[in-house]
Every structure is written in structure tokens, then in C-alpha cells.
């Protein structure tokens, strides 16, 4: 217990909390947008993975991490639209489409990684660079807070900014209204002459942007290389966060932070004598417990 | 005449689904070929190696069959669970923990080998049931998303399994991370010398027949199909839908667990898995190819295994990463699962057939 307290009450724990929360927040916002439009986008896992690799390649061969970020976003959008095309225009089951897509993402990224760097594990051989970390002028000077909040990767700040962007988009713009109607009442949407298909494509594209940024963060911020299956289920955790957060941007962000605590704790505990496998299990276990508690509560609310 | 026309339409529908499948496979290979052309100067020889690979030696061909065994188990497991329209992907975790369970029994249980094997497979099945039952029970009780839950559960199964493995089964004298060896004779034997083909192939055949019989020939299977196709209707006609859904998840988990056990006792003499084997997702892939019919799952499993072994050979000979198979598989699946793919053409043919029939009557 003492070690646990020691692990948690350090500025480095809270610093790493923000770091590990970044991809979860971004991806869960992506999941929030699509589930508001009535689509369960399990493909977000694969989108992140493919974007992460595309970002590394673009950064190494086309001109640095900023180009990498741009390409990662672009690839995220393309993947998202592809999923949409297959599941909506070609009318394949969306869950099956996404499972197929994720399977392809895991194998496909390894294929292209091997084709380019002749390595099936990582792209360490490539000098692909990193998006900058930003020191925040005044906050930086504050003793503990500065260490926690300042000097994060720029995408970490972007991710928390995105929470507000997505909030405003969903609740304060006509597009947001359309997206929400596409999920809640598609017929009403068509009756006022808005295309359901088009609205859902737009929602998917936005979630592709967010998934792309999340992927770029994984390979050009979190670490500076791509490695096989590096997302390790973060896209799935994001879906769980979306479910727990009742598909609201704030709720999903809170849930993401909760899972991030479990993940940050697992890194903090790695230096202790606690069995490492059980430590690694923590974020996933926390997600399961969180999801079940959420469902029980939702059922109880309904019963009332 | 109407009967005749229906039969004709049926026949054309069947032709159409075959044509669609062939076209899907062709397109998938074509796109993959184009992708390969970017990464190798000899895409033709790479593709050739992919196709002839499994036939180059007896050992390689038997590897196809060996690979098809766990795939078939995974396919059957997912088939039973998906029949209830539950997107439960915990087969993956069930497979992993089933394999570990059978390994522990095989290491420690001082019984005659045959009894050990039976006990190992049975316990593996029970563990598989437990794993797949968790998302099932949360779904029927609290309406949790079985999909997300099972995805998370697979990771938990991996880490708990690794923990148990390190605590009770790991051989400290082994150079790599492996368990103590299984007891003498506790394995599924060897069918053909110089290969690793084992008696699990008969076991899986039994499971195919059993699963097909269960789904299409028993009262429970019928209820399962009704619940899967229309839950409300199932409730309305008085089927205990909760019980049926749970039964299918437990049964699917049992098959996954036994599959893990059979793979472990058939192919290995020590437990040495350190990552999830991926069979849960493979099971989904197989069900799309086999149209969720247990009778077709072994065929689909053989095809997928064939591709993978061919790809390994191609990797050795042509230096094209074997993971290209993941792209080929995904493309085939997507095109097969896409209802609208070639639908315009289908519509045209059917219209012509029915119109022609009318013309004949006049």
C-alpha cells in the first residue's frame, strides 16, 4: 500500500497520466462522433494502427513529423471512408467489416513495414522524428503543477482542445444536430431532406481525423517509431470509454482518463515487486469493471 | 409453372453466389498482386510460390492440415455464438486459457495418458466456457456490450494466463520461456511420420458433425436459430431466450477451449505461448467465408491454412512478407460480406429469367 501511494503521489505519475490518456481521449472522441451518428466504429483500432505507420513513413521520406501528422490524418480519413463505403454503400455487416479491417491493419502494417525497412518488428531503422513537446510559459514555473502540465507533446494539448471542439461541433452546430439525428432518428433526418448516408460519411471522416491524430501520436509522440500492433487494443478501450461516457464528449473523456489512470499505474508499478503480468492487466480489467458497473447503473436507471 | 420458375430462380441464385465468391477471390488476389508489385521485382514468381508452396513437400502439405485444425475449432466456436447474434469474440481468450489448462493437466496429472488427455481436453473446454460465458452473462443480465467486453476480456485472459503460467508451470531450467514438459504419452500422437499431423484431426471432425447436428437437427438448435434471427419473436413464442443465448455462449466457449487443448496436446510438448494466438478473429473470418454453416467451416479453414502456409513459403523464397495474406483475406471477406457487391448484375439476371419464363407461357 505504501508503495502504491509512493507511485501515485508523484508529479511524474500525473505527467505520464496525461501522456497515456492522449491517444485514448482522441480515439474515444472519434468513437463518440460515430456512435452519435448510429455507427459502432470498431475499426478505430485499425485506423490508429495504419495512421501510425503512415505517419512514420511520411515523416521519414516526405519531410518531417508535421507532414507525417498530415498524412496520418489523411490516411485516417481514407480508412474511415473505406469502412463506410463497404458497410453502408456495399451493405456489408458493419461489425464484420470492422473486424476484417482490423485484422488487415495488423497484418497489412507488418507487410508494408517489412517491404520498406526489412523488419517485421519495428521501424527503429528509420529516422522518423517526433512532434515537438511544448513548454507552457507561466505554468512551467509553478513548482509541482508545472512538471505535470508543461512540456507535453503538442498532440496531448490538441487532444484536450479537441474535447471542446467535438462538444461544440455536436451540440452547437447544424452539422452536430444532423449527426445526432442520424443516430437517434434517421427517418426524421431524411424527412427534412438531409441525406443520412452523407451525414454518416461525414461523421466517419471526422472520426478518421481523430483516429489519425491518435495514431500519429502513438508513433511520433508517445514513442518515435512504429512497432507491430503498437495500439494494443487502445481503440477498443476507446470504444468502451464511449459506451461508459454515454457517447458524450465529456463523459467519454472522463472514462478515458479513468482507464489512463489504470495504465499509468501499470507503468508506475512496474518498478515495484508486484507481478508484472497482473500490472499489465490493469487497464483492461479496469475497463471491464467500469463497463459492467456502467451497465448495471444504466439498467437501474431504466427500471426507475 | 410457378414452381418451375421458383426452382429456376433458386438455381440462378446459387450460381450467382458461386460467381460472386469467385469474382471476390479474383479481385482480392488482383489487388494484392498490385500491392506486391510495389515491393518486389518478381511479383509473378512470388504469387506462384504462394500457390505451389503447400505442395512442395509432404511436410508443408501436412502443415496446412495441422493449421486447419485449430482454425476449424475457432470457426465452430464463433459459429455457435454468432448464431445467437452475439458478437462475442472471447473465443480468443478461451482458446488461450484452454490451451494453458490442458498443458497444466498434461504436466501434473498422474493418470494413465488416455485419461489425462480426456481430462485435459474436458477441463480446457470448461475453462473456455467460463471465459466466453462472462460477456454472455453480462449481456443477458445487464445488456453490456458483449463485443467490447469480450475484446477487453481477451487481454485479461492473456495476462492472467501468463501469470498462472509463470507461477505454476514455467520450467526455470528452460532456455526460453516454456513450461515443464508434458508427461510421457500425454499427447495426441502422430498420424504420419515426419509430420506433426495428430489425432486432433479426428476430434475436430467429430466436433464439426456434432455442431452441425446440434444447430440444424435438435430442438435447442432450432430455438437458437430462432432467437438469433428474431429475438422478439423468440420471446413471443415462449422460448427462454436468456437461457438459449447463455447456452450458445457456453457451448461456443467449450469448443474454443477444447480447440486450445487439442492444439496444445497435438502440436507441442511444452506450453510456450506468450501472446494471444489470434484464433478468435480467425473464427469470425471463417464464418463469413462459410456463411455461418458448420459444414463449410473445415473447407474455409483449409483454404485459409493453405494461403498462410503458401505465404510462409513465398516469404522464404521471394522475400515478400507473408502478412500479405492478411490483406488478401480481408479483401475476400469484405467482398463476400458485402450484400450489394454485384447485386445490380444479379438483379438483371433474375429479372431476365423471370421475364423469360413469362414469355414462354404466352
Concise structural overview:
Chain A has 13 helices and two strands, in the order ααααβααβααααααα.
Question: How would you sum up this structure, described in words?
Answer:
The complex is a heterodimer of chains A (304) and B (362). With 304 residues, chain A is mainly α. Chain A has 13 helices and 2 strands. Chain A has a domain of 212 residues. Helices cover 78% and strands 1% of the residues of chain A. In chain A, strands 1-2 form a two-stranded antiparallel ribbon. Chain A starts with a helix and ends with a helix. In chain A, 52% of the residues are buried. The mean pLDDT of chain A is 89. Chain B is an all-alpha fold. Chain B has 2 domains: 83 residues, no CATH class; 248 residues, ABC transporter involved in vitamin B12 uptake, BtuC. In chain B, helix 7 packs across helix 8. The radius of gyration of chain B is 23 Å and the shape is globular. The mean pLDDT of chain B is 88. Classes of the chains: A mainly alpha (304), B mainly alpha (362). The interface between A and B is large, with 48 and 44 residues.
Describe the secondary structure blueprint for this structure.
The complex is a heterodimer of chains A (304) and B (362).
Chain A: H1 2-8, H2 11-36, H3 44-89, H4 94-117, E1 133-134, H5 137-141, H6 143-149, E2 152-153, H7 154-172, H8 174-184, H9 186-191, H10 196-222, H11 234-244, H12 249-269, H13 276-303
Antiparallel strand pairs in A: 1-2
Chain B: H1 2-39, H2 43-52, H3 58-83, H4 91-108, H5 113-142, H6 146-169, H7 200-217, H8 219-229, H9 231-236, H10 241-267, H11 279-289, H12 297-318, H13 324-337, H14 343-361
